[in-house]
Design a protein that fits this description.
Blueprint (H helix, E strand, L loop, with lengths): L31 H18 L26 H5 L11 H11 L10 H13 L15 H14 L3 H10 L5
Helix pairs in contact: 1-5, 1-6
Length: 172
Amino acid sequence: VGGTIFHRATYGTLTKPPPLRKTQPGTLFDLCSLSQPLTIGLAALYLVSRSRMDLGAPLSTTLPEFRGSTFEAITLDMLLDHTSGLPSMNKCFEQIAAHDAKAAPSKRLMATPKSIELMKNQVAQAQLEHEPGKKCIYSKTGPMVLGWVIEHITGKRLDDFLMREIYRPLGL
């Protein structure tokens, strides 16, 4: 207040008791847990509220790369709630980084349209880890795929869409 901190504290635990490990002022957190709801989650809510996205739609009818029987049982809401059955982790980035380590600068793939195409194809070839809708396993793959769905629906890159339609209008 008025440039003076009048209260500073940390709350929460890093583990379930017992034993209890409380957070400390220097505790670091993985921001992925925040970036997913503040990007993919907000964008999905925005599109659903404007009838531009149906969370009950099958993934196989939404993105051309995911047409096929494997993805017919996966709906967009399953990508949000981590019940899609898609692998929890994806090794795409490791493979692209390994390629780039050996490639000339002009042939590197990371953060290029070619890398996204490769990642989509790799995820489209992935084996499901469990039956869609039956088990909740935290996944980085599902939100990544939902980001591609949002880009497909809006015709814009996810960061551009978020900035123009959500963040800037909110003054963020």
